[in-house]
Amino acid sequence: PDSFPASRRLFERARKVMPGGNTRTTVFLDPFPIYAVRGEGCRVWDADGQVFYDCINNFTSMIHGYGQPEQVAEVAAQLPLGTAFGAPTESEIELAELLTGRLPAMDQIRFANSGTEGVMMAIKAARAFTGRPKIVKIEGAYHGSYDFAEVSLDSAPGNWGDMPVSTAYARGTPAGVLADVIVVPFNDTEALRAVFSREGDTIAGVLIDPMPNRAGLIPARRDYLEEMTRIAHDAGALVIFDEVISFRLSHAGAQGLWGIRPDLTALGKIIGGGFPVGAVAGRAEVMAVFDPTSGKPALPHGGTFTANPVTMRAGLAAMRALTPAAFAHLDELGDMLRDGINAALARLALPGRCVGLGSLFRVHFTAQPITDYRSVWPGPVEKRRLGAFHRGLLDRGVLSASYGLFALSTPMTRGDAAEILSAIEDTLGEIARQG
Ligand code: PMP
User: Does 59 sit in the ligand 1 pocket, CB within 6 Å?
Assistant: First the structure.
């Protein structure tokens, strides 16, 4: 830790004015986090003047890294004109046109300021549309901090029966919240069918991230998603995709990649070009719950900074630069790293597997077949190895998420990816030697 004296000093200062020195649980690191000072392309400099390859990219949102000229130009042009108005702007129409153009099943969209809000609005829209209270969600999947979306986020082994028990993530969660969230195991069609046959007429929708990061970054099977759509629709319930992260998988998001047509989609992260953003998109019939033109809508929704033109302009620049060629580049780098890491694990006889798709991957230090959240639940050895992996990469100039997530960015070259892979191979070698 003493290789980061300036970050340590900043953390000591932060502790006095923020609980645990922290204002965002996800960036907490024991004993203290590395404080960022600036970024350029795929690199970030910290308070101690050290440079890192950034494989977190603000938890997947900075898909073009830092200082991308088109985004900078759009934002610089908007700043002197005004950053937020109590009136709509043309920019929101442009971004709405672009996004609905990329997602064939999504006719309309509505913006917000975070992915949490995007998911919250999607859940509330499903309830408003169906007039039903319950949602179904996947065990271990993260969807932001709306109470209902948080249920069973860190469901521990004691709660894993045939059917998961709905557990509170935060202390003090009302029992009513748990009662209105049904948790199901991932990629398990029969469990979903059982839930719907038992209480289908109370279910507003199924919330699913097609490659849930915190639940292991394991892709959903297409047949599972197809059956999910059929089962939900037969019961009059909706399918809600959380594409806050997975929209970075292809030009048409995960739904394009899997060929599924959800009823609603929550978006966030990359669509704001580095600024706070969220959105809910959906079929016109469902999105009508927000429509205020004939009096109070079924679902009113505001937001002081919603669709502010800085976010909208930055988002437009980011999205326009995300061409099919940009996705092909990200896919190539992702494949190179996944293949390289799996080859290294095999060579070192270190139990583990690198999973993910496109620009996203995670390393799990388990010898078990990787199928779902439960299969990657880390025991003491896996926890120690994950910690050593994160720390070893930090020492070799690579930033990753503490739980093993990596997100690549478009300014990375094949040369950069080779250097990242070499740092990962060195770190894995060290872990193998330590046993
Ligand atoms: N859904 C998913 C899948 C996410 O990964 C996140 C954030 N990491 C959210 C929702 C919430 O987004 P935000 O942090 O912008 O509220």
Answer: yes
Q: Which atom of ligand 1 is nearest to the CA of 141?
A: 3
CATH 3.40.640.10 domain residues, the chain: 69-321
Closest atom of ligand 1 relative to the 144 alpha carbon? 11
For ligand 1, whether the C-beta of 74 sits within 6 Å is no
pLDDT digit string, tens, across residues 363-388: 999 999 999 999 999 999 999 999 99
Which residue's C-alpha comes closest to atom 1 of ligand 1? 143
**Domain at 69-321, CATH class:** alpha beta
Report yes or no: 337 and 352 within 8 Å, Cβ to Cβ: no
Q: Is 223 exposed, middle or buried (0-12, 13-18, 19+ CB in 10 A)?
A: exposed
Superfamily of domain 34-63+323-434: Aspartate Aminotransferase, domain 1 (3.90.1150.10)
> Which residue has a Cα nearest atom 9 of ligand 1?
144
pLDDT in tens, 112-166: 999 999 999 999 999 999 999 999 999 999 999 999 999 999 999 999 988 899 9
The separation between CA 266 and the C-alpha centre of its own chain, rounded to angstroms, equals 11
The token pair at 195 is 């839930």
Question: E strands, 185-229, where?
Answer: 203-208
Can you tell me the ipTM of this complex? Answer: 0.99
Q: Where in the chain is the domain with CATH 3.90.1150.10?
A: 34-63+323-434
Ligand 1 centre to CA of 286 (Å) is: 22
pTM: 0.98
